[in-house]
Amino acid sequence: MGINIILTGATGMVGEGVLLECLDNPAVSNVLVVGRRPCGITHQKLAELVVNDLAALSPAESKALTGYDACFFCAGVSSVGKKEDEYSKLTYDMTINFAEEYKKANPGKPLTFCYVSGYGTDSTAAGKSMWARVKGRTENKLLEIFAQEGKPSGGYMFRPGIMKPLKGQKRILKFYFGWQITYPIMRFLMPRFACTLQDVAKTMINCAILRPEKNVLEVKDIVEIAESR
């Protein structure tokens, strides 16, 4: 029997890549995609829950999160052109509210919550970069929410840099089209910054199954854990 996954952000590049790997991976039995619009993918493992706002689920929408072993939270927005209060609302508030509803829907169950943060995230309040501070604050709160007495937190913070998309992906940022060709070189020259989206997805799955002790995962950790099963 495989694991059951909730996934957000499936209409973005990262979420689409993670979804494709989950659907292909025999360790995953079911995937519930939660988002504001359909992801455009059909599969026997896949169910969808279309919501108006990830930060304000209705009681019925929250109840639909019951029975899932892990949440892979890939939803997010760019900080470009946004002030800190706006970016915080769209990043911290949205993520934390959804995480709390997910936990509330599964009382007493050991849960895994994988959050795509980003390379350069700063978990201290003194971070100079606005986006890095907000992401860091979000990471810290998630680690607290999914803390378990006597055990490592079930929250896993992913800090990938540039990611090579999976074969068959449609939602690829323009920047990545040319970069895919040079990925082997970039991976060799900048191993601390470059990995594949398949690495990210496999590590999320392994976090749900193996529950590694390290909770804040840099690129080297993501690559290592991806190969651990």
Description:
By secondary structure, this protein is of the alpha/beta class. It has a single domain, classed as Rossmann fold (3-Layer(aba) Sandwich), CATH 3.40.50. It has seven helices and nine strands, in the order E-H-E-E-H-E-H-E-H-E-E-H-E-H-E-H. The strands form two sheets. Strands 3-2-1-4-5-6-9 form a seven-stranded parallel β-sheet, with helices on both faces. A two-stranded parallel sheet has the order 7-8. The longest helix has 21 residues. The protein is globular.
Notable characteristics:
7-stranded parallel sheet; globular; two-stranded parallel sheet; 229 residues; alpha/beta; Rossmann fold; 7 helices
Give the percentage of residues in beta strands: 15-25%
> How many helices does DSSP assign?
7
N/C terminus separation: 16 Å
- Secondary-structure element series: EHEEHEHEHEEHEHEH
CATH class (first level) name: Alpha Beta
Characterize the main sheet.
Answer: 7 strands, parallel
Mean pLDDT over the full residue set? 88
Strand tally is: 9
In the CATH hierarchy, the architecture is: 3-Layer(aba) Sandwich
Envelope shape: globular
What is the CATH fold-level name? Rossmann fold
The CATH fourth-level homologous superfamily: NAD(P)-binding Rossmann-like Domain
Helical/strand content category: alpha/beta
Model regions low in confidence, pLDDT < 50 over at least 5 residues: none
Strand order of the largest sheet: 3-2-1-4-5-6-9
The Rg value, from CA coordinates, equals 17 Å
Count the domains: 1
- Helix percent reads 40-55%
